[in-house]
TrEMBL record:
InterPro entries: Cation_efflux, Cation_efflux_CTD, Cation_efflux_CTD_sf, Cation_efflux_TM, Cation_efflux_TMD_sf, CDF/SLC30A. Residues 220-290 form the Cation efflux protein cytoplasmic domain. GO terms for cellular component: plasma membrane. It is found in: Membrane. It comes from Knoellia sinensis KCTC 19936. It is a multi-pass membrane protein. SUPFAM superfamilies: Cation efflux protein cytoplasmic domain-like, Cation efflux protein transmembrane domain-like. Belongs to the cation diffusion facilitator (CDF) transporter (TC 2.A.4) family. SLC30A subfamily. The chain crosses the membrane at residues 22-47, 53-72, 84-107, 119-142, 154-176, 182-202. The keyword Ribonucleoprotein does not apply. This is Cation transporter.
Length: 301
């Protein structure tokens, strides 16, 4: 039996941790400001965007936690996969928060219909403008690491969505100021709520795919099996499993049956290179067995 383990070097997210920290601080402070302003002004658009910002605070915090946990040694000896999935659980919390915010805004919007709610358009314009500046600064910071780290890329996309929300708040403020009709605030709030709900559904699907140990996006198990079977010296491949541990960390296991004349070390190295170069799997545990070995039987699942 042979085990092939390919361990990556330092995490790219760690090198850009300072970007996440600054962006997190900016977004968290602005979230508090926007929430208070939304409650004081009576603007649903501000409240809905504040809810969106709350989800992004969680997402940025999860990214920060993930970069910290990635380099933290396990002192219990029981976490054989480490604690990388803390990021996935935090993302799941963000999904629930986003859905809750969307439901709240829809209920409030329905309750306001037919009522002459007063909305402070000036507060909306000021807070929306500040939010746009904050989001643009955060985008500039995160853009530098988005191409190297999936954690940073995810945070970058979250802030990009926030930027659209700030633009929506500004538009709502302008329309309310010009028309005096609070329905503009309600309508744009509903649009933001719908946008947040759609994003929550897509993010939730990704979370469930990871927790359900589905094959990573873009990785087809049949193609992996075929690629391993084509390695010189391999006569059969079975017990193949490939899944995502957390975002950007794909892992796999497989049994490789080899011909009698095959060099097990060469087969192992070649198979490991295939997994890394073709499928982006840095950690592959590969068991190499001669085809004369009859003790290995596939498990029922």
């Amino acid at each position: 039996m042979s085990g092939g383990h390919s361990h990556g070097g330092g995490h790219a997210g760690g090198a850009h941790r300072w970007r996440l920290q600054v962006a997190f601080g900016l977004v968290a402070v602005y979230f508090v400001v926007e929430l208070v302003a939304g409650l004081m002004s009576g603007s649903l658009a501000l409240l809905s965007d504040a809810g969106h910002m709350a989800a992004d605070v969680v997402a940025l915090g999860a990214a920060l936690v993930a970069t910290s946990i990635a380099s933290r040694p396990d002192t219990t000896g029981r976490r054989t996969f480490g604690s990388y999935r803390a990021e996935v659980f935090a993302s799941g919390l963000a999904v629930l928060l986003m859905i809750g915010v969307s439901i709240y805004i829809v209920v409030e919007a329905i309750g306001r219909m037919g009522e002459g709610a007063e909305v402070a358009s000036g507060t909306m314009l000021v807070v929306g403008g500040v939010g746009l500046v904050v989001n643009l600064i955060a985008l500039f910071l995160l853009r530098g690491g988005a191409g190297e780290s999936l954690n940073v890329k995810g945070a970058y996309l979250e802030v990009a969505a926030d930027t659209l929300g700030s633009v929506g708040v500004i538009v709502a403020g302008v329309m309310v100021a010009q028309t005096g009709n609070a329905l503009w605030d309600t309508g744009i709030a509903l649009a933001i709520a719908l946008f947040v709900a759609v994003r929550a559904v897509f993010l939730g699907r990704e979370v469930l795919a990871v927790l359900g140990q589905h094959a990573p996006s873009g990785v087809v198990p049949d193609e992996v099996e075929g690629a391993l079977a084509s390695v010189p010296g391999v006569s059969d491949v079975h017990d193949l499993h490939v899944w995502t541990l957390t975002s950007g960390m794909n892992v796999a296991t497989a049994h490789l049956m080899t011909e009698e004349s095959a060099d097990a070390h060469a087969v192992l190295d070649a198979a490991r290179d295939v997994m890394r170069s073709r499928f982006g799997v840095e950690h592959a545990t590969l068991q190499v067995e001669p085809n004369t070995h009859t003790g290995c039987k596939e498990v029922t699942w």
